[in-house]
Design brief:
By secondary structure, the chain is of the alpha/beta class. It has one domain (11-351): pyruvate-formate lyase- activating enzyme (Alpha-Beta Horseshoe). It has 11 helices and 17 strands. The strands form 4 sheets. The protein has an 8-stranded mixed β-sheet with strand order 4-5-9-10-11-13-14-17, with helices on one face. The chain has a 5-stranded mixed β-sheet with strand order 2-1-3-8-6, with helices on one face. Strands 7-12 form a two-stranded antiparallel sheet. The radius of gyration is 20 Å and the shape is globular. The two termini are 37 Å apart. The model has no long low-confidence stretch (mean pLDDT 92).
């Protein structure tokens, strides 16, 4: 039996304007019938969880679904993974201690979904038209993991279908979830890349909570590869502690074995998926994120010592602590060699 991770919200807030859209009305009716009873609010940007602090506030925010209308339809850039962010969802049910959204979403990262999906996609197609004849790439997981809420929104399926018939549009999203079944029969035409965020079991056990384990992610990756999707893997965050070479080497070995066992690269009814891509993201943190992490997870063993890092300003106007250049060189050499040996034809898109 395939276990599917789906958000089971403890509370649901629906913005009043969302009821003007079919999806908003459908979700109001669904939760009114199935529970938890939805609460009408004036703005999806003003949601309170009174009386909660620290870990309690964080954990309950991760069980809070907010349904709203996305007002800002100017998309942010998304280097190095894509040209633009595609804002389908904000936050996710997972509770990863290192999450980079600690900086932007803060200690109460409730999950927001947007009902004006057609408006969002129409805006995306305007971006595509402006950049023609160049291909435009959109990242669907810049501020979220959109897959756990797919049974409520259908946003990924709709986006994949629209981009599948748009010659100059490409869509990509990353996930730790394994609920890929609604996506497997879609006519994606090779325009969507489904990427899975992976880490060794020790990192998952220590720092990733309320997310599927490594085996389930690898199984889901094999299913999307068999459906002809372009596959990709984020090894993220790469944490340089203990015998990290052995742990990440074992992870790559297991990934290669899983893809071989699933027949990845063989011809299927949907064609042959190209070799996987890899995105290598080393652990980094901002001062704001560190403060939030230590508030929510006071017993964390994440390496948060600034003296072993270098400081760098990022593309969104705030700085972060990164590994030093000599550490990055070592990481790059290690992964380039192992990936080349295990995944012929695979491309490392970037190392940051």
């Amino acid at each position: 039996m395939i276990l599917v991770t789906v958000l089971r919200p403890a509370r649901v807030f629906i913005e009043e304007r969302a009821l003007d859209y079919p999806l908003g009305k459908d979700l109001w009716d669904r939760f009114s019938a199935e529970g938890p009873p939805p609460v009408l609010i004036g703005s999806h940007n003003r949601v309170g969880l009174p009386g909660m602090k620290g870990f309690k506030a964080y954990a309950e925010a991760k069980r809070t679904l907010v349904v709203g209308v996305r007002k800002t339809l100017s998309f942010q850039s998304c280097r190095p993974s894509a040209h633009y962010q595609l804002p389908l969802v904000t936050s996710c049910p997972g509770m990863c201690e290192y999450c980079y959204l600690m900086t932007t979403l803060g200690p109460r990262p409730y999950i927001r979904v947007y009902v004006n999906l057609d408006e969002i996609l129409d805006r995306a197609l305007e971006y595509v038209e402006k950049r023609a004849p160049q291909v435009t790439i959109f990242e669907g997981a810049a501020t979220s993991d959109p897959l756990p809420v797919e049974p409520y929104t259908g946003a990924l399926a709709r986006t994949i279908t629209v981009f599948g018939r748009t010659a100059l549009a490409r869509f990509r999203f990353a996930t730790k979830d394994d609920g890929v079944e609604p996506l497997l029969g879609l006519e994606h035409n090779g325009h969507t890349s489904v990427r899975f965020s992976l880490n060794p079991r020790t990192v998952i056990r220590r720092h990733e909570h309320r997310v599927p384990d490594l085996e389930r992610r690898l199984a889901a990756a094999a299913r999307t590869a068999a459906a002809g999707y372009t596959g990709g893997f984020l090894i993220a965050p790469i944490i340089l502690e203990g015998d990290w070479r052995a742990e990440y080497g074992a992870l790559l070995d297991e990934l290669a074995a899983a893809l071989r066992a699933a027949g990845a690269g063989e011809r299927t009814a949907t064609g042959v998926a190209p070799p996987p891509t890899f995105e290598l993201i080393t652990h980094r943190f901002t001062p704001k994120a560190k403060k939030t992490i230590l508030t929510i997870f006071p017993g964390t063993t994440l390496p948060l010592d600034e003296t072993s890092r270098r400081w760098k300003m990022g593309q969104f106007g705030y700085g972060k602590y990164l590994y030093r250049p000599e550490d990055m060189e070592e990481v790059g050499a290690f992964f380039e060699e192992r990936i080349a040996a295990l995944f012929p034809g695979a491309e490392v898109l970037y190392l940051v």
